[in-house]
Amino acid sequence: MKLVIRLTKREESKALPILLRHSAGMVLPDRTYVLDHAAVKALRDAGVTYTELGSDASAPHLEGAGEGERV
Q1: What is the pLDDT of residue 55?
Q2: How far apart are CA 66 and CA 71, in angstroms?
Q3: Residue-wise pLDDT tens digits, 14-29
Q4: Who contacts 48 (Cβ-Cβ below 8 Å, separation ≥6)?
Q5: Tens of pLDDT, residues 32-71
Q6: Would you list the DSSP string of the chain?
Q7: Which long-range contacts (CB under 8 A, 24 or more apart) does 34-40 make?
Q8: Model-level pTM greater than 0.85?
Q9: How far separated are the first and last CA of the chain, in Å rounded?
Q10: Measured between alpha carbons, how far is 43 from 33 in angstroms, rounded to an integer?
Q11: Is pLDDT at 8 greater than 70 in this prediction?
């Protein structure tokens, strides 16, 4: 499961060493990250605070369309 989180500048400086060890996540503008659940857990365990913006569980799905199928 992937989570989208946003960090403050201060929290990002604490999070980067952890993320470099735990995740092959994606970095987006404005200190926004797409991370797997294990990386987010590592951040939480280290006391890094963040704002959760969403997850792949909450992503909209097209019913009746197969994966990779044109709609």
Answers
A1: 84
A2: 9
A3: 999 999 987 678 999 9
A4: 7, 11, 14, 15, 18
A5: 999 999 999 999 999 999 999 998 765 555 555 556 555 5
A6: -EEEEE--HHHHHHHHHHHHHH---EEETTTEEEEEHHHHHHHHHTT---EEEEEGGGS---TTPPTT---
A7: 34/2, 34/3, 34/4, 35/2, 35/3, 35/5, 36/1, 36/2, 36/3, 37/1, 37/2, 37/3, 40/3, 40/5
A8: no
A9: 25
A10: 12
A11: yes
Task: Please give the structure tokens belonging to residue 14.
Answer: 């604490």
CA angle 67/68/69 to nearest 5° reads 90
Token digits of residue 16: 């980067």
pLDDT (0 to 100) of residue 33: 94
